[in-house]
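Fold Annotation — chain and its backbone

Fields — amino acid sequence, structure tokens

___
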Amino acid sequence: MSPRSTAAVRAVEQRGPRRVGRVVPQEAAETGVDEARLHAKVLNIGEVLDRLRVDYPDVTLSKIRYLESEGLVEPARTSANYRKYSEADVARLRYVLHAQRERYLPLRVIKEELAAIDRGELPAAPPPGPRAVPAQPVPKGLNVLLGAERVRLSRRQLLAESGLDEEALAELERYGLLRALSGGGYYDEDALVVARTVGMLAAHGVQARHLRAARAAADREAGLIEAAVAPLRAQRGEEGGGEPRDTVDELALLLVRLHAALLRARLASGRPS
């Protein structure tokens, strides 16, 4: 590939997430990259992941496969059943990820927008200016560490977002590290954090069975907090006050801070147990 063509392809990729469908060939005409090259299926899924992670560091292979299963991108398949993607496919994935992160759109709406682009129509433009973030209260307690966003995921969505497979998720449930919400089989934001974190630990050889102690410690610390706030809760109940949420948040953060300090001290001593 000539230097001019290489720069042109890079320019197409960097122009933003709304370059999909018919929009990509138009950009190809502007930059001198022919449409056939843009749609040539030459990239493997690992190369696609590397490109997307520059702007979307949380994206995973499972996420890309999930978007394919939902019909949002259609890679080619080799005779050995390996996926092959084009530059246009990468642009399409960027569009999906941008619409989810910046515009908070569900996949159903994103799919409709992509279909409109494929028909030669343009979807509604993203809101101008910085990323639109709904007004939210200042995070408190453990939300400072974990984030305050609330999610509700099906089992399939949890697998796609976390990168775990069905066997690994079942193991987490068996060891009590996460569980579905009662009465519906959906999972919340804490289940997602646990699943993602355990997946990263597994890359270092730490298995779910090794983490039962972490669950037991969390249960003990939750009991400690409950015991500490029980008198305050009873007092507020008599006075018609609300839950001592601020005290719970403060105690939770203090316990996490204590745990981190003890862990650092133990590691520094060179004698981790």
